[in-house]
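anyone seen this seq b4? input:
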Amino acid sequence: MLAIAIINTDDNGIYAKEEFFIKPIPRIPKSELISLGINPNTLRTASVFCELAPLILEKIKETHTVFSDKFSERLFVKTFKEIGYPMGSATHILDTLFKKFVGGKIPYSLENAQKAVGITMKVSSILEKCELIQKIFENIPEIGHIVKVAGGINKTLEDSITQLPNTPGVYFFRNAKEEVIYVGKAINISKRVRSHFSSNAAFERKLCAQATMVDYEETGSELISLLLESHYIGSLSPEFNSQQKEMLQPYIITSKMDSKGILRLQPIQKNYADSENEFYYNRDSVLLKLIEVQRKFRLCKRYAGIERTKASCSDPNFCEGICRGAEDKSDYNTRVRDALSYIDAQRPSYIIKLKGRHKNEMGFVMVKQGIYCGFGYIDTETPINSSNDIAGFLKKYSHNYFTSRIIDQFHKTNKRKAENIFKLERLHE
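predicted toks r here
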């Protein structure tokens, strides 16, 4: 996958559009890129996919997705799964919708679909191609209308929807047996729940048809909503939630003394419950950390778990010769231990201060040594003199792959003021 274009729309039309170019690994010949209509210079300065993935996910979370064809959807899902991000299926495939529209009489292509619905538009970029997909989708008959739940909405469901607040939180769709069949999070609970009932997606039709009640928990902030949603999906395993059910094994960095007396670093997959190590979402992210410490502490790529070879490593600039027998083992092992201490020191302890559920309350998320401990709420007038003062209001939750990813993404997308990140070492124990 070399490029992705995303257009976000609502009832008022397009409100955001962006294209992402992805640096290919391994390198693709310049002639092939030109034949695909991609400027090689654009890819030269592009980011690798694992760096762009969180930004792309931010664009499509809580949305219905439309892909041009099944191949595009499968490639998208496969690429994310390869770096440890489980993805659900697309809401709509334009190819399938178009074939239903024309009764299979015309083979699908964007050009044929464009002509069939009467759109005049020149396409010369990936983003313009995405705009064309959006226009075709909206112009195929019976796509844009509001769907009504079969048999109407029962009184209990209608009452529960009218009582939903316009605040951040987690909401639950329940069936006739009062079982939770879907968990979602929202910045505006009322608006988000109503959007389910105004969708024409088959998934939404089925979900809303089975719902007999919607209830909720207010959280005060989007971050706590995300963390609480993840907890409920993992513990309740609702029928209509597809993501975050499967607990993925993250990568960790371990050390091992080999038979030659050389201290090796190596990335392995291991459950968090078995280890107190800092961990990484996928092989790409753990390799980036290994490369960082390999260069910072002048380690050997072969013994740092970056290269698999029985010969000398390929990095004469940073490696001081341990793989060639040109360096004392004890000197090398000392630097490896320094690297491990450096990794361990990067696991901070802090509290993220957030909005509470009302004006006299503060919400917070606690992280100790890089491990998510849970969240809580405290009155804004309550004095905080030690970490124990905060801990008394903490509701504990498990740290896992998904919570780590949620908090990491929060830091990347929220450049918060220093006073909102409260380091625990600043508190008197």
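The chain has 15 helices and 15 strands. The two ends are 50 Å apart (CA to CA). kinda curious what u guys think
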